[in-house]
Amino acid sequence: MNYIKFLILFFFASSSAFSISPDDILAAMDKNRDYNTVSYEGTMEIHIGGEVRSKTMKVIGVGTEKALVEFTNAQDKGTRYLKINKELWIYFPSEQDVVKISGHMLKEGMMGSDVSYEDALESDGLHKKYNASISGEELLDGHACYVLTLDAIVKDVPYYKRTMWVDKSLFIQWKEEMYAKSGALLKVSHVLEMQKIGSRHFPTKLEMVNMLRKDTKTVFTMADVAFDVKIDKSVFSLQSLQR
Amino acid sequence: MKANATHPFFPSLSREGTQSRRMWGEFFLIFSACICLFSFTQIAYAQPKQDPGLILSGVSRNDLVGIQSIDNSKSIGRQMDFAGSNLLTLDMRSAISSQVKIDGSVDLWLFTGAYADAIRQTDSSSILPILQTTSAVVIADIRKLYASLYLPLADISVGRQIISFGQGMVFSPIDVFSTVNILDLSLRRSGSDVARVRVPFGDLSGIDAIAKSTSQKDGAAAAIKAYSHAGCFDFSGIGIYQGAQNEAITGVTFKGDLVAGVYGELVEHWHEGGDRFFVGMLGTDYSIENQWFFTAEYMFNERAQINQIPAQLSLLETSIPLTHHHYGFVNARYKINDIMNVSASAIADITAQSGIFTAQYFYNILQNANIILYVQYYPASMNGLLPQNVGTATYGLRIEVAF
């Protein structure tokens, strides 16, 4: 009898603790990230051993499908990336040349960073590619978080498994671990700063560590973030890339 | 100093250098017409990323090299010369408004040692010398200078521009306007004096039309390229007419993914009287574990013209005539980390069993500064890429600073 009571109590306690479903969490996260258009100025600090290299850029995007990035730091000035769905083109101003990036190159770090082209190109909602489950709750750096485990249900994913620490009230993903099919930990990302922009809570400073590389990390900062700004959509074209 | 060796640090001086002065008159006339046209087309069409104002930037590229001539036919067959090459590239970009932009890039070269000696021995009529002393030569090259007008239906650009129609990294048979300088460590292209109109049909498709200014040497030329994207492939169809050669060129290019990246150019040359020949290029690129990167290209030229290679190429030549049947290019790069890599490459004239072999170490030593250590070797060949009767090895240090 006591055993049955315990089970009933456990069931209610569990259902109370996880009264929100994993899909609800993903939907709430998507709501924070959901926008028609976005523009910001980004800074990418690439830490390699004791050395730091900085890249600055202007970014505009429409949804998660189209983005145009123009680098503004001296070494890469004028270099532009055009992302349309899962494909990427680079414009090199010194040669006035547009190069389509080959698929196998998309795992390479973008401009020498720990962020791969594939990370940048990820456009579909996570719920379409992963089966999510709540594996617990944890306090992470003072933030009460759901621990969400995502297992890939399609082949075409950069990471077969992901673990996310999602803020229980803001639905910001403070930390994420990304795993290979073998179970090896590939990357860890942390949100270092978050801002409330309009009605959204949006991460504006992130750190990405590639666990396969020794002593490197990339810190990405976004400034002047504006959502739903007016953007001429023709700029997301090969013609405009060369302007 | 002895300047017997032809050498890789050929400045990107266009062979149209002397024509450039003649072309300026036409250029400014057309440019003025564009400005007038603009004044009549005050169509507010937002292009948010074109910030008005002048943007100046550039790169300083300094090479110190030792050139070793290797003549195995002599008992004392080795001689070391030293040379320096300092290139200052100044880039200027001025967005007058969201519809009008002027873009320019000027190369200033300072050659010393064996390079300066070699330039003094070349026909200087095709270059723009600024200063010549016993120890140094300073020359200038306007690599790009053009004005663009962005209209709702088309982009119009007039002036010296780099026209990159093809997909090849080293071999690009369709690129007759701006050829790749395969002797340049950075594989740069030369500019071409053209008027260009680009009409988009969609995000990834459109038409690119070009008219080349007339010069006595090159004659008039015109080209049209239609490009699009399907599946995971970019492809284009191109038609070119070159007046001087009385030649029509048709071609298709493609680039996409088939496990590895694949790209190519298939080109047919048509001459008056039904004479025609084919030139094709196929290339592939692949990477392993984000550390090893490979590129390979093969070019076939149906018409071999072995005897057309000049006995001695000018030091200021920007393109080598690829007139043999078979050429190949391979490059392997190993990324030590994100600021350091080593690579080895070969550009081979397979028919003549000759080539250019390069090994280099790259280190991004500071935020905007790179150091490159390199070795280039050219075997002796009277019939290959570089007609010369002695082999040459070059040991170089390059320091690049961007600003």
What's the architecture of chain B, going by CATH? Beta Barrel
| Overall pLDDT score of chain A | 84
Sheet/helix structural class of chain B: mainly beta
Cα separation of the termini of chain A: 77 Å
* CATH homologous superfamily designation of chain B: Porin
CATH superfamily of chain A: Lipoprotein localisation LolA/LolB/LppX
Uncertain segments of chain A of ≥5 residues (pLDDT<50)?
A: 6-16
Q: Which shape of chain A, going by the Cα principal axes?
A: globular
The two chains with the largest interface, and their residue counts, are: A-B, 48 and 51 residues
The radius of gyration of chain B is 22 Å
H and E order of chain A = HHEEEEEEHHEEEEEEEH
How far apart are the termini of chain B?
Answer: 34 Å
Helix-residue proportion of chain A: 10-25%
Look at the structure and give the CATH class of chain B: Mainly Beta
Q: What is the overall number of helices of chain B?
A: 2
> What is the global morphology of chain B?
globular
Q: H/E order of the elements of chain B?
A: HEEEHEEEEEEEEEEEEEEEE
The assembly state of the depicted protein chains is heterodimer
Instruction: Bin the strand percentage of chain B.
Output: over 45%
Structural class of chain A: alpha+beta
